[in-house]
Amino acid sequence: MKIAVFGASERTGILIVYQALHQGHQVTAFTRVSNRVTITHKNLRIVEGNMLDYAKVKEAVGGQDAVLSALGVESRTYTSDLSEGTRNIIHAMEECHVKRFICQSSAGILKKDAGFIFSKIIIPIFLREVFEDKKRQAKLIQDSNLEWVIVRPVDLTLAPKTNTYKVREDKPSSRKIPRADVADFMIKCVTDRRYDRTMPILCS
C-alpha cells in the first residue's frame, strides 16, 4: 500500500517509516528537514516541507492509500501548529480522495485516561497548552468524514518492539509503551478496521 507519514523524522515517525518499508509498503515521508530521515530505500519518497504549507502537504497526500501522523510540537507555550497542520492534512485528504487517517495523540487528552500524577499535575502545570492543541486536533479529526483512528499511547520509550502491548478503551494498565509498538499498531490500523472512529489507548 501507499502510505504518507507526517512527522517522519520524529522518534515515532521514523519507526513507522522503517516498519512500513520492511512490510513492503511504499512510503512518502513528510519532514521539515529531509536529511533527518536517515533511511534509504527504493520504496521511500521524501517530501520536505512545513505542515502549515498546504501545497506541500497536498503534494505528500496525493495518491496515497492512507495517511499516518506522528506529528508533535516542541514548544510548551501556546501553539496551534498541531491542529492547523492537521487541518491541512484533512483538507488535502478530502481534496485528493484519501480516506484513511491514523493519528498519534496521547493518553491524557480526555483528562481521566491517564494516571493521577500525569492528568492532575504534569499536564496542568507543564503541558496545558500542548494538550489543548491536541484536543483541538482530535476534534478536527472527529468532525471529518475520514476513516480515522486516534491512537492514545501512554508515556513513550525507546525500548525495542515487544508485540505484546495492550489496546484498551478507557484507562491504561501501565504507564509506558515502546514507540516501536505504537508504530506497529498504527501500521496495522491501515488495514484493520476494528478501531475505526475510536480513540484506543495503547499501553504495555
β-strand amount: 15-25%
User: Which CATH class?
Assistant: Alpha Beta
CATH topology name, in short, is: Rossmann fold
Largest sheet: 8 strands, mixed
Examine the secondary-structure arrangement and name the CATH architecture. Answer: 3-Layer(aba) Sandwich
Total domain units:
1
Q: Please, what is the average pLDDT?
A: 91
Poorly predicted residue ranges: none
Walkthrough of the structure:
- This protein has 204 residues and is an alpha/beta fold.
- The chain has a single domain (2-203), classed as NAD(P)-binding Rossmann-like Domain (Rossmann fold).
- Helix content is 34%, strand content 22%.
- The protein has 6 helices and 10 strands, in the order E-H-E-E-H-E-H-E-H-H-E-E-E-E-H-E.
- The chain has helices at 13-22, 54-61, 81-96, 116-126, 128-142, 179-188; strands spanning 2-6, 26-31, 44-48, 66-69, 100-104, 147-153, 155-157, 166-168, 176-178, 201-203.
- Strands 3-2-1-4-5-6-10-8 form an 8-stranded mixed β-sheet, sandwiched between helices. A two-stranded parallel ribbon has the order 7-9.
- Helix 3 packs parallel to helix 5 (128-142).
- The longest helix has 16 residues, at 81-96.
- It is globular, with a radius of gyration of 16 Å.
- The two termini are 28 Å apart.
